[in-house]
Amino acid sequence: MPLFDLPLDQLRSYRPESGEPDDFDAFWRRTLEEASAHPLDAEFTAYDAALSNVDAHDVSFAGWGGHRIRAWLNVPAGAEGPLPTVVHYLGYGGGRGLPHDHLVWPAAGWATLLVDTRGQGAVNNNSPGSTPDPHGGGNPQSPGFMTRGILDPDEYYYRRVFTDAVRAVEVARTHPAVDPDRIVVHGGSQGGGIAQAVAGLSPHVKAALIDVPFLTHYRRAVEITDRDPYQEIVRFLSAQHGVCEQVFRTLSYFDGISFAARATVPALYSVALMDTVCPPSTVFAAYNHWAGPKEIEVYPWNNHEGGGSAHRGAQLRMLRDLG
């Protein structure tokens, strides 16, 4: 794939207006207050993962609407806590898999809460999910998750997902192995978009690791890439005429640019200049709005895989330095 977006020197200064609605903060304050009416009711059950150096726990808790959300908590065996902890969110379509799939952060001495994404994880045998989404959203939709409830911000799918993700941070803080003041959120693609949102919404995040984030600068994304998942929105609009402004109004409550502008903790981003799934201008749009200390690793020759293992090394060094 050749370079298709803005040149790097322009990307570094690309800072479009967010276009957020006037009631953005009120919307999210109301959403999280509604969620808080449901006790977290977190359950941590020891799980035999046959791992000598990691203690695994099968986790469930009450997310948006009181719906049960599943997760894994992996803790370095024998570690004297409380430990710094990574709360990890998943890429599009993936599920939580099994504890042995998530060992990098425990190997570095960090506990890890790996959070399932409601409704996802049914198409990949390597990362099955176990969290349904009981709330469907009423409008017609393009296959996938991007257009579920897209005509109404209150009904939109990612309202539930982002709320679950904020609640996951609160759940992590309740476990005795976790240091509640040293929680880092992490994810790539969809997971990066979720981590970006949580960093802007939760007061309990110490830092963020955000890789090639999805769910950011929607209008530009759908106009310059022909790749899914953004193309789900295009297909929806091609069939549902006359609802374009309604759709983008809904999406304005969920745009990573607005969450980044509210995030004040240190962040390490990654971007790939040949990324046709999450175009680099959409990543830089959020990064350039990030309100806290920040760095971005640029991978000029990569597509949506970003920096891969090389970038994981950069993240591990950042965590080591955070302590």
From TrEMBL:
InterPro entries: AB_hydrolase_fold, AXE1_dom, CE7. Residues 120-145 are annotated as: Disordered. Residues 1-319 form the Acetyl xylan esterase domain. Transmembrane segments: none annotated. It holds the Pfam family AXE1. This is Acetylxylan esterase. It comes from Streptomyces laculatispora.
